[in-house]
Amino acid sequence: MVSISDHGVQNILFGLTTQSFYTRGSLKVIERGVLMQVKNSRERYGVVSISLHWLVAVAVIGLFALGYWMVDLDYYHDWYKQAPDIHRAVGLLLFAVMVFRLVWRWMNKSPVPMPNHLKAEVIAAHVAHGLLYLLIYVAMISGYLISTADGSSISVFGWFDVPSATGRIKGMEDTAGDIHYWVTWSIIVLAGIHALGALKHHFLDKDDTLRRMLGTMGRKR
Ligand code: HEM
Predict the structure, then answer these.
(1) Atom of ligand 1 nearest to the CA of 111
(2) Cα(95)–Cα(42) distance, rounded to whole angstroms?
(3) CA–CA separation, 205 vs 128, rounded Å?
(4) Which residues line ligand 1 (CB under 6 A)?
């Protein structure tokens, strides 16, 4: 019988029933199933990092699309007020998620790079990941400063209000608006390059880079 700890698979959260794991007692059962670890290990991402990655990716792309669309709405459109309200509220909630993500990242070492990756690819990926974190923070902070430049607070779906940190500052709305515009475009371009890199590793190099961010690493291809 093979025990979980024999293979260093810690923090198992969900997946095949424990019964099928123990009765069949083979590592293959673990690897082909949907068992996932909570924390990252040296080989793979845990379920928390994976969920945070995809939640943030969907939120960032969704916020960009919503922002792009809402700036051209005219005053009489049904969504004229609602769309920016949603954009601001989701942006603030994303800030909380990103703070948790950063803390989680500090508490958890990222998996080591795939052995087949070139040194230049590893460095480029590190720089891109760091930049994505930084740009997302700048986008959220500049967005907050646009909305609070007149001293008003932001309502998060009516659940609670986040007050202005600066009070009324003349010209801040325009400066923060320019930063928000260029930074959000940079995020989309960089995330696009980043996604292409992941797809290149998946389809051309045929390695586990994407699979370990999908939580399907080790499953039968
Ligand atoms: C706005 C969209 C996205 C953002 C902001 C983003 C950001 C990040 C960041 C910061 C990391 C580093 C891991 C971490 O710190 O937790 C990462 C890893 C990763 N991302 Fe994304 N990502 C986005 C979209 C995508 C998409 C669309 C794909 C796939 C097509 C993808 C595939 C991956 C993979 C495979 C890794 C792991 C890389 C490795 O292990 O070296 N990402 N992403």
Answers:
(1) 40
(2) 28
(3) 20
(4) 49, 53, 56-57, 60-61, 105, 111, 125, 129, 132-133, 191, 194-195, 198-199, 209-210, 213
CA 137 to centroid of ligand 1, rounded, Å: 16
State in Å: Cα 129 to ligand 1 middle. 7
Structure confidence at residue 83 as a pLDDT band (50, 70, 90):
very high
CATH numeric code, 44-214 = 1.20.950
For residues 32 and 27, give the distance between their C-alpha atoms in angstroms, rounded to a whole number: 9
Domain extents in the chain: 1-35, 44-214
Q: Whose CA is closest to atom 4 on ligand 1?
A: 57
pLDDT confidence of residue 11: 47
- pLDDT digit string, tens, across residues 131-145: 999 999 999 999 999
pLDDT in tens, 25-47: 333 334 444 567 999 999 999 99
Sign of the four-CA dihedral 200, 203, 205, 209: positive
Q: Tokens representing 89?
A: 């509220």
Q: How far is the centre of ligand 1, averaged over its atoms, from the C-alpha of 53 (Å)?
A: 6
Contacts of 159 (CB under 8 A, 6+ apart): none
Ligand 1: residue whose CA is nearest its atom 35: 210
Alpha carbon of 186 to ligand 1 centroid (Å): 15
Q: Atom 25 in ligand 1: which residue has the minimum CA distance?
A: 195
